[in-house]
Structure prediction request, 244 residues.
Amino acid sequence: MKKAVLFGVILLLAAQQALAVYVVILRNGARVVAKEKYKVQGPNAVFVTKNGTFTSIPLDQLDVETTDKVNGMGLGDAQLLEWVDAKKLLPTPTPTPPVAALGRIKAGVAAKEGAAARPTPTPGVMFREARYRDSKVDLAFQQGLESYHLYLYRTSEGTKPAYLFIEIQVNGQPETIKALQAVTATYQLLVQKAPDRLPERVELQMLNEAGKEAGVFRLSADDAAELVSGKVTPESFYVQHVIF
Prediction:
């Protein structure tokens, strides 16, 4: 029995080490995921990215304080949202089936007709220097993303002060689905615990590794409930709500 428990502990530690990452945060809000903490060499911070690329960034471009703070929170673990009196952590993501053609949907495929037609996003759907008006709500969404092991993101005020903007870099279909799940799950948590502080909309812009759009969304709390409740599949949710 003791051997079985010890073996389980070893497996758990091994899994945690496998997920270990270090997130380098730049002054412009961009994030780079490294295998371990950067080293200072002269005027530069040097490190190896999670993909194995050796990278050097000038130290004056590094947001050292925020980098230390975020990594000190324990990346890869969901954080308790104490200010909303959360009773449990955000759900652990489960594997999802492949989503055919995600990120390659042709213009018009998701278009609706008549009164059901959705407005197309304006050119203003983009990252801004202005922060979202409620820092705790902003933090809640950041923690939600990191609980799904999504670290390459940045947030700001959206096209309206009541809108939260989130930009996420996704690597393929699985991360695209995880991004939708993380954002909608966090939205629903706030519906339950802090309904008076909800963003009116969450504007979500996904970018692939080449920097090209993989989907733009303007989601409401009701939209989020559709996916969280399981009423629709992730692939159907994507097609119904994407507004490239």
In short: The longest helix spans residues 172-193.
